Amino acid sequence: xxxxxxxxxxxxxxxxxxxxxxxxxxxxxKAGTIEAEKVNNDxxxxxxxxKEYLLSELDxxxxxxxxxxQNPILVSALKTKALPKDxxxxxxxxxxxxxxxxxxxxxxxxxNGLTVAASNFDQSNSFIGKNYSFRPYFKAAxxxxxxxxLAIGVTSNKLGFYISHALYNPSGExxxxxxxxxxxxxxxxxxxxxxxxxxxxDQRGVIFxxxxxxxxxxxxxxxxxxxxxxxxxxxxxxxNKIQPLNHKSSDQYYGQYQAHSINHVNYFVQKIDIKxxxxxxxxxxxxxxxxxxxLINGSALSFVTLIALLxxxxxxxxKKDTQRFQTIVDNLPSGVTLFDNNRNLLLCNEMVKKxxxxxxxxxxxxxxxxxxxxxxxxxxxxxxxxxxxxxxNKLIENTQKRIDHVFERTRPDxxxxxxxxxxxxxxxxxxxxxxxxxxxxxxxxxxxxxxxRALLQNLDxxxxxxxxxxxxxxxxxxxxxLLEFPDKFKKPVMQYEDLIRYNAERGEYGPGDPExxxxxxxxxxxxxxxxxFERTRPDxKTLQVTGKPLHIDGEPFGFISxxxxxxxxxxxxxxxxxxxxxxxxxxxxxxxxxxxxxxxxIKRCQRNGNPLSLLLLDLDHFKNINDRFGHSVGDxxxxxxxxxxxxxxxxxxxxxxxxxxxFSIFLPETSREGAFVLAERxxxxxxxxxxxxxxxxxxxxxxxxxxxFDSVMEDRIEDILQRADKALHRAKREGRNxxx
Length: 740
What we know:
Elements: H1 2-68, H2 72-76, H3 84-101, E1 105-110, E2 115-118, H4 136-144, E3 146-152, E4 159-168, E5 174-183, H5 184-192, E6 197-201, E7 207-210, E8 218-219, H6 225-234, E9 243-244, E10 247-254, E11 257-262, E12 265-274, E13 279-286, H7 288-330, E14 335-340, E15 345-348, H8 350-356, H9 370-379, H10 388-401, E16 405-410, E17 416-424, E18 427-434, H11 436-457, E19 462-467, E20 471-475, H12 477-483, E21 494-495, H13 496-505, H14 514-525, E22 531-536, E23 542-552, E24 555-565, H15 567-581, H16 591-608, E25 612-619, H17 622-629, H18 631-646, E26 654-659, E27 662-668, H19 672-687, E28 691-693, E29 696-698, E30 702-708, H20 717-733
Parallel strand pairs: 8-9
Antiparallel strand pairs: 1-2, 1-5, 3-4, 4-5, 6-7, 6-13, 10-11, 11-12, 12-13, 14-15, 14-18, 16-17, 17-18, 19-20, 19-24, 20-21, 22-23, 23-24, 25-27, 25-30, 26-27, 28-29
GO molecular function, one term: diguanylate cyclase activity
Pfam family, one: PAS_7
Membrane topology: Multi-pass membrane protein
């Protein structure tokens, strides 16, 4: 279910994102198309204006040239033997004309192409004396009366436009040619005031003027060999500098408007022809501002769309949340009301009507005010004998204070309600919960708890309950009595650390640093692990301490401990063990316990390789003593023998009675020689026992067989006992009172 919801939310988010992007894209395209149309219209207007400006300027210059070509002074200066004054006057006329027209130069050539007068006559780079008959404008004027030519100046090395007019004498004879050179820098300066980039190309596609200097002297088309020869011969441009301009139609469109790529930069282009001079003007507008405009508009539209969708979504969610909230409220086990700050009831679920037994008539005219509900309750005795107006005034006073409240109220039918009121900005939210059954359960639990506490307090053993913070939240009197804690520690909740500190300081945990004892026990307790151990107090009393962890949902939250005095039990167990392991007559180990200890010692020797010896002892003629003096005397003889032997043994030596007058002693870490030495001492000590009955001396002797544990042969207890028994029989055969 969670995965399905995640997938659905992901798909919805993806669809919304795609929709917002699509709206933004369409908006960007529309904005770009509108802006492209505007830009193209502006380019058209600028192109027409620029064309008209160029034609106007050049027509004026052409008109001036036409007028000057009819000036008689200039014609006189072209005569073969012209007067000096005519030359001077011609130079003056040409200079003034050049200054007024702000052209580059005005000069006069004879019919052979030799310059005879010029506006720059007084300059070092004067054209006078220069022959420009090779220029096309000269040839055109000679043959057609007028001519034009666009070229780099031979003398000035600057690009200029040349307008030429032929001069004739009154008889119609060609006298020479007047040339006006127009400085294209002036035209370029005007063009720079136009907001768009531009370029102007001649009839061969060579760009001779542009707002972008990198475009100048670039060709829009491939220049043919014929044109290259013409350019070279007329010295129109430096042919080696002319390179093709990288331009082509772009794949970028805005509506019907296609962009043009020049040097990898996209432009909108408007072209217009100047047929009079066979020129073409290109006005350029970069696409970047249009793209930015489209992007901004598209982004803005996407943002507005996103905001609109978000607003719609929030309204939808609010509606769904309201419906969900109403559903939740209607299905709550408690009654819920919401009153505004003027005590008007805004929300009320069905459980309120059910719990408080409000009739439907109260709601027939819509939601009643709080005042009406209070009066209704007071009238039916919900508040006891209190005056309804007094109850209402008190309620109004409390609402004005806006204090949260929680209280219990018992209705006349015995139902107990818990009423909780919380103030929020919108007003007062109140819940009404029927806690009748809960109160009964609490009373029953309290009664049961009382029984349980009484039971625990009357137990003979101590009980404590410790929570997860190591606070003792329950203890009984037996706990204090067994551990002899002073009454100052008796509190409803005690600190576990305080008690163990008291114990450590009075030596309950033995010698050592008390703080170390405290730290160790706190760390062990915090593990909340089950434990059971015995502890002997300094007074000799032994306690059995058992702790079991308490869990809630698998997590430990404390433990319960019991303390039982097992001192008498330990003493009784010790007595029983002694009775089970000891021969009652001689008070040494009986055969069973001796065998167990001997087997244990054999295993120890097998591990560490130490020597182990065994003595098998038998009182000589003991049957005669029993038969002659009686069993009571025989018992005394056995006791005296046992006592005499034990005085000669070490703490690690173990003696046992195997039965009747037969005894055995095993000697840990004792070699064969050492065993024989001890056996001989025992034999002599037995001879020295002074024992009598009614004045008659009774002599005691003992025969002893010695055997060694053989670790190489991996002896069993039966093997070593058998060898010791053989040695004992050999001692008896050899006359008794011997060690073999």
